[in-house]
Write a structure and sequence with these properties.
Helix content is about 10%, strand content about 45%. By secondary structure, it is mainly beta. It has 2 domains: about 10-90, Elongation Factor Tu (Ef-tu), domain 3 (Beta Barrel); about 110-199, Elongation Factor Tu (Ef-tu), domain 3 (Beta Barrel). The strands form 2 sheets. It has a 6-stranded antiparallel β-barrel. A 6-stranded antiparallel barrel has the order 7-8-11-10-9-12. It starts with 7 loop residues before the first strand and ends with a helix. The model has no long low-confidence stretch (mean pLDDT about 90).
Length: about 200
Amino acid sequence: MFTGIISSIGIIESAEQQGDMRLKIACNFKTDALAPGASVSVNGACLTVVNKGLLASGKTYFTTTVSQETVSRTTPDLWQKDRKVNLEQSLKMGDSLDGHMVSGHIDGLSIVRAVTQAGDSYIMEMEAPENLLCYIAEKGSITLDGVSLTVNQVKDTRFWVNIIPHTWNSTTLNERQPGDRLNTEIDLIARYVARLLQK
């Protein structure tokens, strides 16, 4: 489980197709926190650490495998060499829950329609996939590229999120442009409420 609070911006050092996709990702995590089998959210997708080490630069890196299922559900240009990615280590018992409960399972891709500045913050206008619209509510939570955000407004197929300066400067959201697709995870509570209502 994650919270959607990004702890590091990583860089994909290598991406090789060997059956599944094999990645080496540079990060700022302490080596002891990256035991094989540990979970890391990479742009919102929960991936498992296979190995770890140190680069010549002194930065930590970890390797991971990305299944075809994950590749098919995430942004098409994500798994490429030199791509910057939002990283978050999994929750530990007793950790502060500063964002919201995030599973690291991508539900769909939302499209950036506009980015405007409002004071020191930024507002992103997003277009959601039709099958996710019923889960997105004003003042509810949503995860975009692994970042926990609050929905400001919902209208038709669009929703708006406000990004404060700290989040803007500490994530890759400041590089996103109109037309870009972002990995989207709906709120876990909304998912289970909808499932119960279907029953």
